[in-house]
Design a protein that fits this description.
By secondary structure, this protein is α+β, with helices and mostly antiparallel strands. 14% of the residues lie in helices and 19% in strands. The strands form 2 sheets. It has a two-stranded antiparallel ribbon. The chain has a two-stranded antiparallel ribbon with strand order 3-4. β1 (20-22) and β2 (29-31) form a beta hairpin.
Length: 113
C-alpha cells in the first residue's frame, strides 16, 4: 500500500508511546508528536489600553509583560480553523518551513517596493 507521509504523520521514531495533549479548539486528546504546535506571544493588555496604561504609569519606560503560550491543535481542528492548509502530494514533499513574516522594528522606515 502506498505511504502518504514519510513519517506517517508523527514524530515518534523509536518511542513506543507518547503522552497526549489537549487540542485547543476541540478538546480532543492528541499524541504530542502528532499535534500541530504553535507558540503564541501576546500582550497582557489589548492595544487600545496600552497607551492609557503607559501614560498613567509612574515608571518611565516600563515594558508591559507578555503572555507566552504553547498551543496544540489536532490535525482536523487545525485544518478547520485554518492554522494549516491541505497540500497536494507534490507539495507535501517540501519540508522547508514557510517564509517568515518580518515586522519592521521601531524607528525603522518600511522599505519601499
Amino acid at each position: 500500500m502506498a505511504k502518504k507521509r514519510r513519517n506517517s504523520g508523527r514524530a515518534k521514531h523509536g518511542r513506543g508511546h507518547v503522552r497526549r495533549v489537549r487540542c485547543e479548539a476541540s478538546g480532543v486528546l492528541v499524541p504530542k508528536d502528532k499535534a500541530i504546535k504553535r507558540f503564541i506571544v501576546r500582550n497582557i493588555v489589548d492595544a487600545s489600553a496600552i497607551r492609557d496604561i503607559q501614560d498613567s504609569s509612574v515608571h518611565d519606560g516600563y515594558v508591559l509583560p507578555k503572555i507566552y503560550r504553547k498551543v496544540y491543535y489536532s490535525v482536523s481542528a487545525a485544518i478547520h480553523s485554518k492554522v494549516v492548509r491541505v497540500r497536494s502530494a507534490k507539495d507535501r514533499r517540501n519540508r522547508a518551513p514557510p517564509p517568515r513574516f518580518n515586522r519592521p522594528r521601531e524607528g525603522e522606515k518600511p522599505k519601499a517596493a
